[in-house]
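Predict the 3D structure for this chain.
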Amino acid sequence: MVVGQVTRALWPSLLEAAPWSLLALTSAVSRLLLVQPLVPAALFFAVAITRICVLAPLYYGFGRDYGDAALRWSEEKMGASATMLQRVEHWFRKFAHLLVVCWWSIFVCMLAGATGMRARVFFPLIVLGAVLRVSAIYFVGHWLSGPLGAISGFVGRYALVLTPITIGITALQLWLTRRRRHAAALVGGIDALEADFAMTEAEVAAEATVTAPPEPD
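Done. Predicted structure below.
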């Protein structure tokens, strides 16, 4: 997660100085498309596919070992809405094999492990998905090589200007995410405190009813 945030902040400079590094550091389609005209095909396929095949077993194992706790952790780190991730969980239980092939995501890998997908099923599917995904990105990039090359050239020329902007945007996003989490935790704490007060009041009232002396006739 930290590597992803750093890459998001520094990607203009990385694209200009070492475009191949983005293949190893990010899975964002937009950045991989910008890298495509700048590196040899063999390097593009080798690094991009290897990245997926290295990370996928790690997240699969995390999901298998920690189950629902791993899924809740990924929800918090990804900052996605609970509704959206619940929808993904729902569809995964119906179309698990298809999602593993068609949608590269750490959350999908964790789901595969948490729901008990067999390793001998998961690993061939993730390799197939990696090959298909990287091939699609490469050939789309090849088809759009003219405009993508122009955009990459622009980013390279103005990397020193664009990088501080992307750093600022990333820092702002992190601050807003942390603020939302703090507010959610505060609301949850207040709700829990109110529930404790209500329970205490109920216990006191019940105790007073039991210990109160009977009224004279």
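The chain has one domain: 2-158.
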